[in-house]
Amino acid sequence: MGSDLVGREDELALLGGLIARLPTTSSVVIVTGEAGIGKTALLRSALDDATAAGLRVLRGACAPMSGAVAYGGLDPALSSVRIAAREAYASASEGRARAVESMLTKLGELADDGVVLVVEDVQWADTSTLDFLAHLSRNLPESGLLVLLSWRDEDTDAEHSRWLGEQLRNPMIIDLPLRRLTLEETLRQLSGHPAEIGAAVYGRSAGNPYLSAELARGGARLPASLRQVLGARLDAVRPPARTVVGVAATFGRTLTDDELLVAAAGDEDAVTQAYEAGLMVRDPEHGSTARHPVLAEIAYERLLAADRRLLHTRMAEHLAASLSGHPSAGAVAEVAAQYGGSGNADQALGWAVRAAKAAEQGYSIAEAGHWYAVAASLGDPGLDARPQVPAKLELLDAAASHLGAVGQVDRAIALLDFDLSASPDAAEPGAADLVARAALTRSWLGTVLGDTQRALRDVELAERLTSSADQVTWARIHARRAMALGTCSRWEEAVVSATTALDLGTSCADLRTVSTAHFLLGVAAALAGHTPEAFEHHEVALATARQAAEPEHLAMAGIGLTDLHWRLGEADQAARVARVIRAEVRRLMLGRHWLEDIIDTNVVLALYESGRWDEALTWLADPSVSSKLGLLQAALAQVHLARGEIAAAEAMQAQAASLAERDQPLFLGMYGQVQASLLLQTGHADEALELVLSIAETVSGTPDEVDEADLLLVGLAAAGAVAAPAAVERLVSLLGDATGGRIAAAMTSVVDGERSRARGLPRAEPWLIAAAEWATLGRPYDEARARLRAAEALLEQRTGSDARRMAAEELGAARQLAKNLGAAPLLEDIDHLARLARVDLGPRPDRRRAGRPAHRPGDPASDTTAWPPPLTEREQQVLGLLADGLTNREIGNALFMSPKTASVHVTHLMEKFGVHSRVQVAAMAARLGLDRQPPPS
């Protein structure tokens, strides 16, 4: 083992074991650590072992300036298996999916003989490379493939950080962080140097292996910083040699000798010096690269601005001249990236557009969006470039459309965040269509982000600018309008627009518009209670989305179908549909679409209502993370809250806070219902009631009111808890539509029950009806809560032993339901009432006690047939409370009786015990062991 692998014995053994097990398994390893920690050395050793074992090795890498080169991290390894870029598919998403499937298929074939795929410095990878690697990690062949990735720990953008977090949550991925070496290990690494040198080096390197080696070469006299050490190495060579090293930072691949010579402006001695100084490393088979990525970064950073521009110009011209007749998107993007640093604005603009179009043809959607955005940022082209370059607004619209399609919605809408009608391009002849298209793009983005008022204004702008003869655009105008109207609960208007969109979309064969229209009409039908019609629309929406191969439309159809199954209480069917559509969406997205959150919310709610709480919480047990929408987090918070997991519920609800900021009532109600439940459960019933009333004011009168049954339930519970009958009536007035549909009988009974409870005259009958209805609907949690309320009312009615017996039965049934569910707070409420009312919910205990006083002649207790005296059930309960020192009023409150009735019971107890005071009764009860004996049920 070389000195650069000291302290890596465990890591080498792990990788060696994975290589040995390749005939039976496949694995993914992410090696993480700081610069200089030894990631490359570790991987190189593993690859040597793989080569020695006869395995095929595929190598790729990423670089700081290659993040917009589609598949830049993979092209060196997989270029021979990439799909033909010009093949036509139904959608860009379908083309990308087929490209990835092609690569996966080829890797699977190679895996038959064993293959190792290495991609280094993934922290700089382009989106296509990230998507492919994530998809690959979830779809590994059963055996024969080892994927080795390296990741330098450093600050990076949100997209890359999120990607790494997702991968490390995947149980199929092995996280292999590299630590710094100990002093002993550093001394072993530097065994060729005196011990005092090794100790001094360690004191300055803190165990970073690469820095230790560099410091030892300089006798520990160099500054104790990796960048400073490497800078000193660069200072020892001529500027042209430094340029040779610096060019490596601009590519995510190895470089040919010709490319290095171009970088050095033809200076062969500079290239030779870079090699001889150990700054560049040549691999005869794969090409050359810098000895360390940080070395290349520093060399590039130290170039003067003018020298950088010259370097980029030389490289761009060389790469452009070397392009084949049908270059890959990555090859064109390399030219665009080099011209981007050249200072030649016209060339940079022209090549950015070419890179965007090449990415489109290669189905690299994110990179296409990036390059269109770059082109739009480069300003007006010169006269020579103008015929080849689209208008700036067209570039911005294309960029926003592509970025929005891959989920980068915030970035997409930022590109169009200006007055579209005042754009300089809007004044050009024939620009109206362009402005209208951009307005429709922004309209959808606004709807996604919850700004539906802006979305509607953009639709109106598109309407003003679109010719009446342009049926395709008008179809999309009506679809966008319907979507915006629907999300802000104006469904009556939405149906009109959706119907028109459907007619126009059908006439011009616009599959995306047709699918959207059917989805919206299906949602409207569901809200109106027309279930068969809703199913029909959503099934057609799904079939059309499959034809169009659009993940967004597939997801919308999935939302509609799972929503219907949730409404019908069909949790299994909702889960089945979600699984099928999720697989189709992820095939096209290569990851999670944000609309999946709503699909999953429907499933979680269906599982929650049916009492399958463990399944609800584990429904998302996969490596993907939910979006920033917050709806799914609110649904999960509801489950945690019912289980009494307050901290988890609060954490989830905090992530759902954005729902309250949207101008979409359908999301506001969900957030408010959970927030009010949290307040109610933590002892803030008055605040809960106030919150529900305020949200009910917003939701009331909209078609979405019918979906606010849970909001109404928590509001009624809060009103009952604070004895606010007027609030009950106000809630019913505001949310009356929520009491209809298949839950109508249950909801009506709950309203009657809470109405009587709020007035201080609780009635058991409505709660008993509600419990039976909830049981029929298969909603055990609601049933258990109704049974608890019924028991409270029965005990409050004080109508004798029959009512008490019924109360005990209801409490027992409620307790069993709560126990089965794991509903800890509800279980506590049930047990508290049982203790308070002296209702025994357990087995009847044996009244004989081993510690009872002995029989004594002359003592009343000597008559074993009469002593202890026979006590009624109620007298036993009064006796226990009396022994606790409670007054007659306190006993009455505890047992739901008047103080006068409690006094009568106490008098009877004194008579039966033959004593003259309460204290004597308590003492006698204690002596006989009757004071703590649980009463029979």
Automatic annotation (TrEMBL):
Region span, Disordered: 841-870
A Pfam family of this chain: GerE
Keywords on record: ATP-binding, Nucleotide-binding
Biased composition (Basic residues): 846-855
Domain HTH luxR-type: 864-929
InterPro entries (alphabetical): AAA_16 (IPR041664), P-loop_NTPase (IPR027417), Sig_transdc_resp-reg_C-effctor (IPR016032), TPR-like_helical_dom_sf (IPR011990), Tscrpt_reg_LuxR_C (IPR000792), WH-like_DNA-bd_sf (IPR036388)
UniProt signal peptide: none
Official protein name in the record: LuxR family transcriptional regulator
UniProt organism field: Kribbella sancticallisti
Highest classification ranks of the organism: Bacteria, Bacillati, Actinomycetota, Actinomycetes, Propionibacteriales
